[in-house]
Amino acid sequence: MRKIWEPLFMGRQLIYWLVLGSIAGALVGVVATYFLKLLFWSVGGTAHWPTWAIVVALPLGGLITGMLIHYFAPDAAGHGTEAVIRAVHRQSGKINWKVAPIKAIATITTIAPGGSAGKEGPSAQIGAAVASALADLFHFSPEQRQRIVICGIAAGFATVFGTPVAGAILGIEVLAIGDLWYEMLLPSFAASVTAYETARFLGLTWSYPRATAALGLNFAVFWKLALFGVIAGLVAYLLVLLMDGLHHAMERLKSERHWWPPLFPLISGAALVVLMLVAGRSYNGLSLPLLGHALSGHPVPAFGWAWKLLAVGITLGFGMSGGIITPLFVIGATLGSALAIPFHLPLAIGAELGMIAVTAAGANTPIALILMGMELFGARLAPEFLIVVIPAFVIIGNNSVYPSQRVRLQKSPWVPIPVGRALEEATKGPLPLPWTRKKPPEASEAESQKASGHDG
Predict the structure, then answer these.
(1) Confidence (pLDDT) at 431
(2) Of 22, 321, 438, 449, which residue has the fewest beta carbons closer than 10 angstroms?
(3) For residue 452, what pLDDT band results from cuts at 50, 70 and 90?
(4) 162 with 223, same domain?
(5) Which pLDDT tens digit goes with each residue over 77-93?
(6) Of 395, 428, 449, at which residue does a domain stop?
(7) What is the CATH number of the domain that holds 122?
């Protein structure tokens, strides 16, 4: 009898989450689209400001950002996806509705004057806040709230990048290292596709150059691309180290010296002014012209990736607001363009491979980024994306721009780490040497499921 009724109940589940995911996706698509339009309008307004105006606006924007976050919504600090990951794992997705408008304003006051951050973290956090409000409206259970909030994250990513497939996977994969929550694939795709179509209907457009040819794989190309991926992963690791170091310094000064928290984004803005006067304005804000230049196959400064990395670390490590994936795009594309010359690759292909590999390593999301590479640049480079992404993902180890990610995979038995806990908790203490290490403690099954977000 069970086998007769089972498809009927599964069909009910299918329709239920298709409808719920689509509703969430439509709402997030509208809100995220108008946030992006406001952000682009603000950035366009400041693009032609003289240098002296930027010198004044950057610290002032940092101060305004800091005050908004400190007095109205502390969860709006940093790159928003991190706060959303923490909320999904620790609060079943419960997010204060005030986060959405404060995050939007704080991101604009960061990026428009020249803070080096991205637009996707705020969109994901806005999407999660909208979905959480929807859960409040319908009195969802904690499990249902968690799921609908993940739909909001995916919808936010899809709206920003114009990649409904990669956006759906990214919204799930970003939560835990080495895990895809399969029962979330359907609602996540429903939300992602609906948000993408809603954004298109409202006039949002996306433009990326397409790869014209593949490299042609052979033994030599394989090893060359594997080394390329290792370098990309190490550069992503540098960014993680810089951001962690600055963040810990900020927290120490807050707790030990009792510094006023809004002072740190102001200092960040002042430091960015110095960097701008040394390196130029290309590394300010979203740096989309620099990204487009690299992806189109035009030469970029050999150490442009290092300048952008430094700008991003200063911006987000010291308390300003914005996303991290767009900066990873820029760092990766400029690094790939620079590596293309010694690796004898076309500049455009080097930039595309670098962008995907650095982002996959920094965010610990290899599957989503391989799919994103195919969506953005075409399927011709699918084997190349795979070859550069996996070494980058492995070499960065148990490090991430999202320290609240749950560990569901040990990348190497030589680097033991307890499974089922957040990275920031699991990596505390010194790294045991291979000849002195003991078997790592494992979380209980219930703890592991709860920690990974599968507590429903």
Answers:
(1) 64
(2) 438
(3) very low
(4) no
(5) 666 788 888 888 888 88
(6) 395
(7) 1.10.3080.10
Q: How many residues does the chain have?
A: 456
DSSP labels, 17-51: HHHHHHHHHHHHHHHHHHHHHHHHHHHHHHTT--H
421, 406 Cβ separation under 8 angstroms: yes
Q: What tens digit of pLDDT does each residue of 261-309 get?
A: 999 999 999 999 999 999 999 999 999 999 999 999 999 999 999 999 9
- Domain termination site, one of 155, 174, 201: 201
User: Are residues 152 and 53 part of one domain?
Assistant: yes
pLDDT at 168 over 90: yes
At 451, the pLDDT band (50, 70, 90 cuts) reads very low
Taking CA atoms, 315 is separated from 266, 350, 450, in Å, by 10, 27, 33
Q: What is the count of structural domains for the chain? A: 2
The answer on 104 and 174 residing in a single domain is yes
Between CA 29 and CA 154 the distance in angstroms is: 10
The answer to whether 33 and 202 have CB atoms below 8 angstroms apart is yes
Q: Is residue 35 part of a domain?
A: yes
23 in a domain, yes or no? yes
3-state secondary structure of 321: strand
With 0-12 CB in 10 A as exposed, 13-18 as middle and 19+ as buried, what is 172?
Answer: buried
Residues 243 and 382 in one domain: yes
Q: What are the tens digits of pLDDT across the range 28-49?
A: 999 999 999 999 999 999 999 9
* Whether residue 267 sits in one domain with residue 118: no
Same domain, 261 and 388: yes
Q: Is the domain of 192 the same as that of 229?
A: no
> Residue 415: inside a domain, yes or no?
no
Reported as a single tens digit per residue, the pLDDT across 363-421 is 999 999 999 999 999 888 999 999 999 999 999 999 999 999 999 888 888 888 888 88
Give the residue among 316, 275, 330 at the shortest CA–CA distance from 51: 275
Confirm if 125 and 84 have CB atoms less than 8 A apart.
Answer: yes
Residue 26 lies in a domain: yes
> What digits encode the pLDDT tens for the residues 191-209?
999 999 999 999 999 988 7
- Structural domain boundaries enclosing 55: 2-201
Listing DSSP states for 62-104 in one string gives HHHHHHHHHHH-GGGSB-HHHHHHHHHHHHTT---TTHHHHHH
Q: Looking at the structure, do residues 179 and 230 belong to the same domain, yes or no?
A: no
Write the CB contacts of 62 (distance below 8 Å, at least 6 apart in sequence): 110, 115, 265, 266, 267, 268, 269, 270, 320
pTM of the predicted model, to two decimals? 0.92
